[in-house]
Amino acid sequence: MIYIDKVGHMVSDESEEDLHDFAKRLGLKREWYQDERLPHYDVTTNRLREKAQNMGAALVSSKEIVNIINSMKNEIISL
Questions:
Q1: How do residues 5-15 score in pLDDT, each as one tens digit?
Q2: CB 10 within 8 A of CB 41
Q3: N or C: which end of the chain has fewer CB within 10 A?
């Protein structure tokens, strides 16, 4: 599942590849991916945030975005 918050941080709880695929369909460039401490894409316009939601991204709080990222990191570590 793809998630986005009101300020445009977009993440996936499935996989990094799932996020990249969704971002590509949304029209984002791969080099815009931010994979530092909190891996995500920034969706910087209202139009693109609305388009992401219309494509199936769930609107969540910024706190939930951080929780999703931390859960994915924990899952990777336990593999």
A1: 999 999 999 98
A2: yes
A3: C
How far apart, in Å, do the first and last CA atoms of the chain sit? 20
Whole-prediction pTM: 0.89
Buried-state track 42-52, b at ≥16 Cβ within 10 A, e below 16: ebeeeebbeeb
Question: 23, 41 in Cβ contact below 8 A?
Answer: yes
Tell me the domain boundaries of the chain. Answer: 2-78
User: What DSSP string describes 39-78?
Assistant: -BEE--SHHHHHHHHHTTPEE--HHHHHHHHHHHHHHHHH
